[in-house]
Amino acid sequence: MELIKAYKSEEFLMSEEARAIRILAEYMEPARRFKRLGIRHAVIFFGSARTRAKPELGRDFYTEAADFAEQVARWTTDSHERGERYYICTGGGPGIMEAAHEGGARVDRELNIGLGISLPFEQHGNPHVEFSRALEFHYFFMRKFWFLNLARAAVIFPGGFGTMDELFELLTLTQTGKSAPMPIVLYGKDFWEGLFDFRLLAERKLISEADLSLFRICDSIDEAMAYLVPTLEKYHSPGGA
Fold it and tell me: Residue 129's closest CA among 188, 59, 216, 69?
């Protein structure tokens, strides 16, 4: 019987004892891939996987997300050399994620990056991300690490628990200086102002008044771009990290 080296043993690699190796792999493989592809920074789009185009009721955030991402992709293509462009990065799934990648693909499909996660429901890859730019994670925290590692700006559309988790981690990291400052757009005034009273947190001294400037609630693509682009250029000049 041929002996199997430990690093070739699937039984070992999938065991509890090898969890640290699997975690490390989800750090090292994306790092290697992004370096090979020259991907250094991105605009992150978060939002619900359940959002659909042309809803029977309510606002069509799907179409707005696609049009917004298209404008971001066109702006960076026109304004930056290939190695300095801002990629359109999402969780790689349906809903707002697919919408953003649909918009990015209208300009350049290679600008799309999908950081997927293995889930028993909702999640599946969307058709607008090339195979080399589509990643699949097991660990949520490693996936979120890569979102924040690449993020130079973030656009948050209406969403559920996952979107809120991503938003408040991002706000916490920028508030505490663990993440570099960046423009954070909360898109959809009625939704965000109806959901959270951010000013109440400041009034009750639970956050500082300055923390309210960590994000901007915007209600149109033009308004969001007018905030995102100059703020992004202020914090992240070409050639920067």
Answer: 69
Q: List pLDDT tens digits, range 49-82.
A: 999 988 877 899 999 999 999 999 999 999 999 8
Give the three-state DSSP class for 196: coil
- For the residues 18-22, what does the mean pLDDT come to? 96
pTM of the full predicted structure? Answer: 0.92
CA proximity to 140, closest of 182, 169, 183? 169
CA distance 169 to 167: 6
Burial of 83 per CB tally in 10 Å (0-12, 13-18, 19+)? exposed
| Phi/psi at 219 (5° precision) | -120, 5
Q: Token match 């693509």: residue?
A: 221
| Torsion angles phi and psi, residue 45, rounded to 5 | -110, 120
